[in-house]
Amino acid sequence: FDNKAGLFIGTEIVRRLKEDGGLHPEVGVYVLGTVQEEIGSRGAQTAAFNLAPHAALAVDMGVAMDYPLARAEDQGKLDLGKGPGLSQGPSTNPLVFDLLKGAADRRGLPYQLQAYGDKSPTDARLLQTSRGGAATGLLSVPLRYMHTPSEVLCLADIEATIELVCAFCRDVRPDTDFTP
Fold first, then answer.
1. Which CATH number describes the domain made up of 4-171?
2. CB within 10 Å: which end of the chain, N or C, has fewer?
3. Is 93 in contact with 137 (CB distance < 8 Å)?
4. What is the DSSP letter of 131?
5. Where are the domains of the chain?
6. Which H or E element spans position 57?
């Protein structure tokens, strides 16, 4: 499911924004499926350079640590069924984080807090630094047993992620200032 679930999420976001509306007419939304995230995020870097977005959200899988012998101190605590992880750290913009958290809180959407002490191992780090850089947020869908043949995810986490990204997109206005 790692990365494949993200493609489904992106497709659903576009479908729902189109069908349900609510997006400001001067706000554009691009959904990208990038390549080579595991080996340098080259796809994200190229896309961010070409599009030069004001803001970007990286949606990836996060390592769920809710099984026996899992060491949460190695990866942080992320559980299945409790919503996506909202990340804070060097690769994310604090105002994007606040907008995501506010969108979730106002709509009663579940989420978990995550922190990265170093740069994110996701596309977020390249979205943040490519060209002039984009104000970047990171959502991590909990995934148990990542990078194995027996990955497990929770459909409610997928749904919460879709709803949260759609809510964020609807809340952004042309004059939204992402300057920390």
1. 3.40.630.10
2. C
3. yes
4. T
5. 4-171
6. strand 55-63
Phi, psi for residue 59 in degrees, rounded to 5: -115, 120
Cα-flanking dihedrals φ and ψ of residue 66, to 5°?
-110, 40
Residue type, 87: S
Kindly name the residue from 12, 19, 26, 37 that is annotated as catalytic: 37
Cβ burial of 140 (10 Å; 0-12, 13-18, 19+) is buried
- Show the tokens assigned to 81: 């069924």
- 107, 96, 167: which is closest to 136 by C-alpha? 96
Whether 37 sits among the annotated catalytic residues: the reply is yes
Classify each residue of 27-37 as buried b or exposed e, where b means 16 or more C-beta atoms within 10 Å of its C-beta.
Answer: bebebbebeeb
